[in-house]
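A note from the maintainers: we've had questions about how concatenated examples are separated. There is no special marker in the raw files; a new sequence line simply starts the next protein. For clarity in this README we add a label.
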Amino acid sequence: MEKLWNRNYVKVMTANFLLFFAFYLLAPLLPLYLSEYFSATKDVIGLVLSGYTITALLFRPFSGFLVDSFDRKRMLLFFYFLFFIFFTGYLAAGSLLLFAIIRTLHGAPFGGLTVANSTVAIDVLPSSRRNEGIGYYGLSNNLAMAMAPSVGIAVYQYTSDFQLLFWIALAVAGLGMAVDSTVQLPKRPVVRRRDKISLDRFFLLKGWLIAVNMVFFGFCFGVLHNFLAIYSKEVMGITGGTGVFFLLLSIGLIVSRLLGSKSLRKGRLARNAGEGIVLSTLGYTLFVLCPNSFGYYVSPLLIGLGNGHLWPAFLNMTINIASNNERGTANSTLLVSWDVGIGLGILAGGLLSEYISYTFAFFTVAFCHVVGAALFFLATRQFFEVRRRSVTD
């Protein structure tokens, strides 16, 4: 059996961990920052934070095209540098408008970098271990999610200094860029397509239903991730539990990735996805139906276990119906659908909590996840199986 944990794969995973550490260090605390430093209302917070995701969403289809059409390592380092340098903008922003502009523009290199890095990870994986390797690759995201919010919240609790948090994020991103610069990629011919540019150059049309299904799950996570801290404080009266919540969520993700690797290696993608969707649906439902400590600390484990199965399965499903020269496009397609959901979730979460209540916003989350689950079992699963059988490697 070919070696999975080769040197370049480990480097790409490390750089991905540092990328998401820089992201998750700030994400849970930015609503508090906007509220405390700029006196932003809930709906304005939703609009400002959704800009990052919307920009990533708009840029990702083009980044998939760029990664497939030009030298991947150069594109990778270009995106990483832009992602790194934008953190200096947070340090300089002295008004809500300037912060909103910088945060929104920062989404573009983030979108390009996540596509480029995951595509490079696929390139350095042996073909016989690709499904399994993609599942393990997500562990770097999950570890960052486990550690970064807790670190960020701890730093803020002890220092009340958001500027220090921005400096830490800048340093971590710089380290990730340095690690990626040492990755050696296998030589591959750069595809110079002379045919007319069409939509399928930027979006994997043959995977459209998988992408639509992922929007529902992204919506749920967008509301949860961005409004949990305020919801916990204002509705549930839990002030110090956000870090523990994300830690438990990440533990579930990590355990799920490890347990699901064997199933992915055997190609049981739809089964993995289905199991993950059921667990996540139970987790979101428990969270809204049990607004107490039991629901608060058990639900993230279920959501983590579910998403740890769901995400790599959906990514592998998308890649399995794409040709080899469409890997970047396949990656960007799934990430775009996730971004659409996240952006809609942030926007809707801000509006619903401002004009109705946080409780109603999170009940909407549970309902959307149930709809996403129904869509998968009634349509998406068969959609994938038919197209996988028709694809030749």
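[label: protein 2]
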Amino acid sequence: MPSDPVQALAQEPVDHRFKGLPPDAGQAGLTVGQLTAERRNLHTGGFTTPVLTLDAEALSHNLAALGSYAERHGLAFAPHGKTCMAPQLFHRQLEHGAWGITAAVPHQARVYRAFGIRRIFLANELVDAAALRWVAAELAADPDFRFVCYVDSVRGVELMDRALRGGSVRVDVVVELGAGEGARTGARSDEDCRAVADAVAGTDTLRLVGIAGYEAEVPGADPDSVHAYLRRLTGLAVEFDKSGRFTGTEEIVVSAGGSAWFDAVADVFAEIPELSKPVLKLLRSGAYVSHDHGWYTRLTPFNRIPEEGGLRPAFRLWAQVVSRPSPTQAFINAGKRDIAYDLGLPEVELVRDPLSGAERPAPGVRVLKLSDQHTWLETDGAEDLDVGDWVALGMSHPCTIFEKWPLIPVVEADGTVTEYVRTFF
């Protein structure tokens, strides 16, 4: 492993793998670091459309906002890395106080380890034998590595135990409490959770360290039902502590928290009574890092608690008008391969004249639908939109925005590109 694998990303060549970057940079054999040092302007520096960007100021604001929120409420923070899969952003999250980074699948954990992440919370039951042996080897080789994952079934415990037998380490696990019938994963009843915990106690390969869940999966989630679910989760933590199920651990992990209900998590976790060991109250929100222009703009808890702060959309996708076949129709050169669309169509934010550099709002321009490589725009007929204009789109759902772009320019307010964020999906 390089001494600083994040800094080593600057040595990658700017080549055909990276959409939207200046072709002349690749022709000149520039590395990412060399291109960064040139501080090119997004609109005049040779970038091609479509190109996804991150707003530097919004990114910094969001990183600070959740870091300070967690600190104010006595929460540890392990943001879900699946959102961005960007080691540079992971390390900025850690600099803002994050305890570690959450993963969903073994591949993500392997990326994290390749870039020096020392604490990983895997929010899934891990029953892949090869992946478990890899985790065990990482734990054995690095005494500073902390790994915790879900268990939600007796069968899962049996499979994990079988894969780990003969090893020299025990893997830390938390019982996942499901959010109800029709929800996603997790043991459905309190009795099921007790059975899973007892199955863990019967192994020499696993160690029960806590309780976890995901409140956004509560059917028909509203403040009352989410708070009730979280109190059920913390109640199990209290019960398991009193019954002596958390043996051999120095702290009890209680974890929840997506990007829609972290205020409820803060409320309920503040109510946890003193237990026999210190409690690690672990929040896992991930979408905050970039926020978005639709889905999370509507769902963020900061709408309910504006006095606590707020988040800013950091993404902007620039595409270019390549056809204007009628007064009410236009096409830009970005589509499903470039744009997130699983939680709604993008919205037109701005139009930029490539000749004058003037930017203007475009309230009369709407996205009608997406093809693979085109966005269909509908206009009111009077909107001034010309072939060659650059169109800025705002999008919903950070998780499916990041995944389409392996290298993303970070742009200052004046258009200067100051960094390139590398993703690993």
